[in-house]
Amino acid sequence: MSRLIDLEAGDRILISRTDRLGDLILALPFVESIKARYPECRVDVIASLYASPILENNESVGKILRVQNDQLLSNKLYKKDLLQKVKKEKYKTVVVLYPERQISRLFYDAGIPVRVGTAGRFHSIFFNTHLMHSRKKNLKHEFEYNLDFLRFFRKGPKITFSKVHLREKELNNARRILGNAGVDGRFIVLHPGSGGSAECWPMENFIRLYELLEAKGVNPVISGSDPEGAIAEDVAKKLGVAVRKITGDTDLRTLAAVLSLAEVVVANSTGPLHLAAAVDTKVVGLYPSRKAMSPVRWGPMGRKGKVIQPEGVECQCPHKQCTCMALITPEKVAREVQVMLKKK
């Protein structure tokens, strides 16, 4: 049995998850579980600058520390400044859910008394409390792997869902952006990009899906970045399809608000898919048939998600060069969206 960490009222706990958006969203159950078990302690989170806005307006999070990972790796002055910020907070405990070497060393240098991380890595030497587990076999969901760290803490509530807490002004801004794009009434969001984190369904298929849904009276809109919007526009013109899009018009929290207003979101296995699930919207996730990206570990949380994968293949394509995803037909995805729209 793991030895419990001794925490007293007023102690400060830091939770570290400094990688991608989806990873941070799947760490929220652990963050909220810790706060529920230690309401008398302050629970702070350190996260990447890009993903950190999803922590805002969350009553379980005391303070948000934001890290620019590229600067941490290359800028000594930036690293020194971040170290001083961490030292200043006088944390009793840090839990490192994503044990990147530089950030793990920083907590060691900051002299945090209890440093919790996984065993079996070279930089595990920077931790003095070790969790013995391996995620490589993808035996369960990522949020469950994060909850494994609860064994070092007192018994209490275990949160098993992620939730992003929106503000009314963000919802109003989302409605304005949608109105400017000509989106009125019930609508669904197609999010073709992945930020390089996952294999992508071809853009041509997203545009064909758009066309199929519009023909069935569904109101689709494309979201994503400016470059993704340019690609979508170019493909749509070649296919003779006029599309509505809000690409480049939303920051992360406004995107979350847009997704919360949608009936269904269709996306690759990427952060915005998990973001949609975290604002309680139905999702259709498009996943490769590849063990490393298994929906067992990376699928959308909750009961409102449907995963579609290429059938009858085990993907052996080079990373980011997957051709198997094209085996998922727009017709199949359109049918699943129709089923989701009929569900209460």
Plain-language structure description:
The protein is an alpha/beta fold. It has two domains: 12-152, Rossmann fold, CATH 3.40.50.2000; 168-342, Rossmann fold. Helices cover 36% and strands 15% of the residues. It contains 13 helices and eleven strands. The chain has helices spanning 21-25, 28-37, 69-74, 76-88, 101-109, 142-147, 168-180, 203-215, 226-239, 252-261, 271-278, 295-298, 330-342, and strands at residues 12-17, 42-48, 64-67, 93-96, 114-118, 129-131, 188-191, 220-222, 264-268, 282-286, 305-308. The strands form two sheets. It has a six-stranded parallel β-sheet. It has a five-stranded parallel β-sheet with strand order 8-7-9-10-11, sandwiched between helices. It is globular and about 60 Å long.
Topology of this structure?
Elements: E1 12-17, H1 21-25, H2 28-37, E2 42-48, E3 64-67, H3 69-74, H4 76-88, E4 93-96, H5 101-109, E5 114-118, E6 129-131, H6 142-147, H7 168-180, E7 188-191, H8 203-215, E8 220-222, H9 226-239, H10 252-261, E9 264-268, H11 271-278, E10 282-286, H12 295-298, E11 305-308, H13 330-342
Parallel strand pairs: 1-2, 1-4, 2-3, 4-5, 5-6, 7-8, 7-9, 9-10, 10-11
Could you give a short description of this structure?
The protein has 344 residues and is an alpha/beta fold. The mean pLDDT is 94. α7 crosses α10 and α8 packs across α13.
